[in-house]
Amino acid sequence: MSSIQVTILYFGRLRELVGTSSEKLDFDPSISYTSQTILVRIIENRPILKSFLISNCFRLAVDQEYLPESDFVRFSEQSEIALLPPFGGG
């Protein structure tokens, strides 16, 4: 399997849990991923996120666009994944 390094961006509580705002993670460029399979890969690398991602609301974005649950995506070296918790405001 050849793999590429995709940047994972963490925000809010997720950044606090992992202790960094970004990191690189290997993905297979020949596979089409769904939001679910992306999350499985991230949780394999960062098990501490499992309970948070299962029990909290957040958004998954790939290359600065939200990824609907039913969509598929393939990654390149320039790809980035952002895990976005709910944002408060006023």
TrEMBL record:
Molecular-function GO term, any one: nucleotide binding
Magnesium keyword on record: no
Pfam families linked to this entry: ThiS
One GO term (biological process): Mo-molybdopterin cofactor biosynthetic process
CDD domains listed in its UniProt record: Ubl_MoaD
UniProt keyword list: Nucleotide-binding
Domain of life of the source: Eukaryota
Gene Ontology CC annotations of this record: molybdopterin adenylyltransferase complex
Residues annotated as signal peptide: none
InterPro entries: Beta-grasp_dom_sf, MOCS2A, Mopterin_synth/thiamin_S_b, ThiS/MoaD-like
Protein name per its UniProtKB record: Molybdopterin synthase sulfur carrier subunit
Organism, as annotated: Rotaria socialis
Source organism phylogeny: Eukaryota, Metazoa, Spiralia, Gnathifera, Rotifera
